[in-house]
Amino acid sequence: MCAGAIDGTHIPIVAASECHAKYVNRKGYHSIIMQDVVDCKYLYRDVVIGWPGSVHEARVFSNSSIFKKGNEGKLFPDDLTVELQGVEMSPFIIADPAYPLLPWVLKSFQRNENQPKRERVFNYRLSRARMTVENTCGRRKGRFIRFRKCVDMEVPALVNVVLASCILHNICEIQNNDFLPQWEESERAEEAVVGIDNVNIVECDAHNIREALADYFS
Hints:
The protein has helices at residues 57-62, 65-71, 117-143, 155-174, 204-217; strands at 2-12, 31-38, 44-52, 82-84, 87-89, 92-94, 105-106. It is an alpha/beta fold. The protein has one domain (2-182, 198-217). Mean pLDDT is 86; it is low at 186-202.
């Protein structure tokens, strides 16, 4: 039922000519944010690019079309619902702690010293599955090495260039073009635990789904 993984990364840029302060991220450099959803075949399925680096990933997510469709129940077909451990669930995407826990967005249990084994097993499996989104980004950068460095380009033009690289990357993956291991660059997302305000979501469904999966894996 896992349909993909979502992640947020920062694309380094030269200081913007206007309102440059808002492009400074938490680490102190200028960037724009890229939110991407990928599948198990290293294909980009949804991409949002262009928010200033100072904006929280949670805000980018809450203003994206995938968030709106997910909350309206329009992201996946209705006939894909299944029952697991007595809990009804639809397809979902997996995320890191920066994202909210929703019926269609699952993230790890909060870590603590006395964490039950079933929760640790779930977290491990989710973490392993999430490597797909990091690997996809690494493969795209491997093909287009310009994105490994700070890009000196106006933001609107850069957005189009990054989108084009995602499309070309998908074409390469679909056509099974050669990819040399030495091209790959691992990409890790910043894991900031933040919330999304004013989201009228009943979280019990999401918790029940995560608990059912934890029981299944254990």
